[in-house]
Amino acid sequence: MRQKHILSILMAGLFTLMTAISFGQEHASGAVNTKEGVDEMIDHHLDDSHYFDFFADGEEGKHYGFALPIILIDNGLHVFSAAEFDHGNQVVERAGQHYALYQSKIYKTDAEGTLHFDEDGFPTNAKPWDFSITKNVFVIFLVALLMLLVFGGMAKTYKKQPLPRKFGRFLEPVIVFVRDDIAREMIGPKYKKYMSFLLTVFFFILFLNLLGMLPFGVNVTGNITITFALALVTFFIVQFSGNKDYWKHVFWFPDVHPIVKIILIPIEILGLFTKPFALMIRLFANMTAGHVIIMSLLGLIVIFQNWIAGPAFFGFSLFMMLIEILVAFLQAYIFTLLSALYISSAVEEHHPGSEEEEIPIV
Amino acid sequence: MKLIHDFSFGLFFFQIALIIVLILILKKYAWGPILKAVESREEGIQNALASAEKAREEMANLKSDNEKLMQEAREERDKMIKEARAIKEKMIADATTEADVKAQALIEKAKAAIQAEKQSAMADIKTQLSELSIEIAEKVIKKELSQKNEQMQLVDEMLKEVELN
């Protein structure tokens, strides 16, 4: 037991160290040893990328990793490797149109790759439809494949014997937890219909969060696009499973004064959207914040560069790393729990005459 | 502003497509079978517990039945022993009475026999006596011819003797 403890601490330390290496050297232009350099490195890490870099040598401008395919729809389909952009140093020409890579985004430019900026510092150049396999797309496909292998394999073991085996021993209690403490607890007797969604979303977010802890610079659940898509799925499921009571609750309040109704209806309609919006922001903000804190602490090591700050900030970031592992589970749980809660508000049966909300007890 | 700028339609498209496909595939190949297996196992455990409870109840019933049977058997045995004892006592009593009666009868018979013997003996004696008397009388009659007095004397003496006898 004690040995395991030491081992896990060592592992966590190793991961932190590796993260430091990979995060610290991910940035392309110049070494990361100034405040600005750290800022840029953090921004760069949080962004999606067309390259899957394990680490990079900033001083020499070398990247160790692989370029991902770029798929553009702009007067036809253009597929080429991101290596052609050379991390934004080259302008790529396809079918007479020039494309430039700037801060992980592809813009249409002239032959020299000139970008025009607005007052906020964003390029105003037109963008092609970008369906590239970016790092995040690559990772979500990887996680999807992992889930198919893990859970598909787990499902197969039940055919041989009724007890879980291998990873299933760990995963089955988690699945049962999602079923009993999230789905049944929140939704009640109609929970079965939503199990697939809840379980998929729970493990998808959990795996991505945990993958974000590994030193590959993966920050998928801290990407607003991903959380938006996930929240949108919840939103549609909630709206489509809404029963008569739910819509009555939104548009018509049986025992409320007409004037109050006029005030309440817009609030309720707004509420339909704020719920998934909160889901989106919560997951995004929590994961982004975690990554920013860990990398900032690691960045402080580079900035201070002395024997006291080094170990101290290393310790802090190790501590944060452990907290982040907790947060990884917690955020997956919260996203699933709140999705279940919103679904329950949509499918709940209100008995006429009873004031109290029916709380399903299972 | 940065967030809106960050929004990537391509990534959004892939994510939505992936999550929907993933939900559907996992539902068919993973969640469905897993949840079914878990549920059937839970049901199995529930059934096993229920049947164990039932078996225990049956066991308790059997045990109480057994005890009842035992109790009945014991009572039956006691009753039989009691009856047997009564029969034995009655038999002894009957035998005693019968023996008494038989003994009495035997005694009676013996007494009667003795009486009869005595009667016949008496009769015999009387016969002999009369024969003897006749003999004596003969002798007396023979003597009477010579001495009358003496003869009378002799008859008296002899009669006395007979009476004594």
Present the secondary structure layout.
The complex is a heterodimer of chains A (362) and B (165).
Chain A: H1 2-24, H2 35-46, E1 51-57, E2 62-67, E3 69-73, E4 77-81, E5 92-94, E6 97-102, E7 105-109, E8 129-130, H3 135-160, H4 168-187, H5 195-213, H6 224-240, H7 244-251, H8 258-304, H9 309-347
Antiparallel strand pairs in A: 1-2, 3-4, 3-8, 5-6, 6-7
Helix pairs in contact in A: 1-9, 2-8, 3-5, 4-5, 4-9, 5-9, 6-8, 6-9, 8-9
Chain B: H1 2-6, H2 9-144, H3 148-164
Task: Name the features.
heterodimer; A: 362 residues; mainly alpha; 2 domains; three-stranded antiparallel β-sheet; 9 helices; 8 strands; 58% helix; globular; B: 165 residues; rod-shaped
Structure description:
The complex is a heterodimer of chains A (362) and B (165). With 362 residues, chain A is mainly α. Chain A folds into 2 domains: 69-132, no CATH class; 137-347, no CATH class. In chain A, 58% of the residues lie in helices and 11% in strands. Chain A contains 9 helices and 8 strands. In chain A, the strands form 3 sheets. Chain A has a 3-stranded antiparallel beta sheet, with no helix packed on it. A 3-stranded antiparallel beta sheet of chain A has the order 5-6-7, with no helix packed on it. In chain A, helix 6 (224-240) packs parallel to helix 9. The longest helix of chain A has 47 residues, at 258-304. The model of chain A is unreliable at 19-29 (pLDDT under 50). By secondary structure, chain B is mainly α. Chain B has a domain at 13-120. Helices cover 96% and strands 0% of the residues of chain B. Chain B has helices at 2-6, 9-144, 148-164. The longest helix of chain B is centred in the middle third of the chain and has 136 residues, at 9-144. Chain B starts with a helix and ends with a helix. Classes of the chains: A mainly alpha (362), B mainly alpha (165). The interface between A and B is large, with 47 and 36 residues.
